[in-house]
Amino acid sequence: MVLDKGLGIAATLDLLDMAAEHVDLIKISFGTSVLYPEKTLRDKVELIRSHDVDVCPGGTLLEVAVLQGALPEYVDWVGQTGFSFLEVSDGTIQLDSRLRRLAIELALARGLRVVTEVGKKDALERLPPPVLHARVADDLAAGADRVIIEARESGQGVGIYDERGTVRELELEQILQGVANPDRLIWEAPLRNQQAELILRFGPNVNLGNVQPADCLAAEALRVGLRGDTLRTCMTSARAAATDC
After folding, report:
1. Pairing with 133, which of 40, 125, 170, 190 sits 20 to 30 Å away (CA)?
2. Residue 79 burial by CB count (10 A; 0-12/13-18/19+): exposed, middle or buried?
3. CA end-to-end span of the chain, whole Å?
4. What is the pLDDT along the chain (245 residues), one digit of tens a residue?
5. Cα of 105 vs its chain's centroid, Å
6. Residue 171, exposed/middle/buried by CB under 10 A (0-12, 13-18, 19+)?
């Protein structure tokens, strides 16, 4: 998942020409979608989808819609604008399980696919593992395609990362212990060391989120062992496979 913080049409086309085959989803971040000129937003969404890449607005917009009592109208707007995905999150607000499930159901009924996010943007509001596990399970059962593990765009001091952006092993293990389908998780990992560590741990097909547009090919190089951080592991795996043969 690529985090787009305001690419223009030309820059978006450059990104897609270079890296579309390595990108599954582009998130037009935060609430920036409503700051675009309407035609520019529609043109951009159409351009992204024409390259077989999915696109969604940031979850902050849904949170604002909930606060305004306008959730159904917001879901309609997402569909009318041409987005293929809706993000359901409560990183800042409190969203009870009933409203969370309703948002997913409204999106599915509108023909949208759904990605949800669990975790809080404020490090002081850390979700207890049992609560996080329950939300992941409930979201997937309600029809979400994937569930994002919150780490913000900084990847520091929140979620599975400490203040330096290093993976907290205990935090990661606690999440994994209660998730039946870890392959359905998207790990927000904006920093190179985070991407490398998750790839080495889960394999090249791990779902990474909040990748910066300029880092798309660099992240793909990590996945396939064309960067020093993962080359040694790929070489070791290749030698082991040759020995087994």
Report:
1. 190
2. middle
3. 36
4. 999 999 999 999 999 999 999 999 999 999 999 999 999 999 999 999 999 999 999 999 999 999 999 999 999 999 999 999 999 999 889 899 999 999 999 999 999 999 999 988 887 788 899 999 999 999 999 999 999 999 988 999 999 999 999 999 999 999 999 999 999 999 999 999 999 999 999 999 999 999 999 999 999 999 999 999 999 886 666 555 555 54
5. 20
6. middle
The pTM assigned to this predicted structure is: 0.93
Tokens of 183: 């392959």
Question: Which residues, at least 6 apart from 178, have a Cβ–Cβ distance to it below 8 Å?
Answer: 129, 130, 132, 133, 136
For 12, the token pair is 């978006």
In this structure, which amino acid lies at residue 232? R
Measured CA to CA, the distance from residue 90 to residue 98 in angstroms comes to 13
Q: Give DSSP secondary structure letters for 111-127.
A: T-EEEEEES-SSGGGPP
Instruction: Catalogue all structural domains in the chain, each as residue range(s) with its CATH number.
Output: 2-244 (3.20.20.70)
**Burial state string for 182-193 with b = 16 or more CB within 10 A and e = fewer than 16:** eeebbbbbbbee
Helices (H), 82-168: 97-109, 129-142
AA identity, residue 178: G
Closest CA to 225 of 216, 215, 241, 238: 238
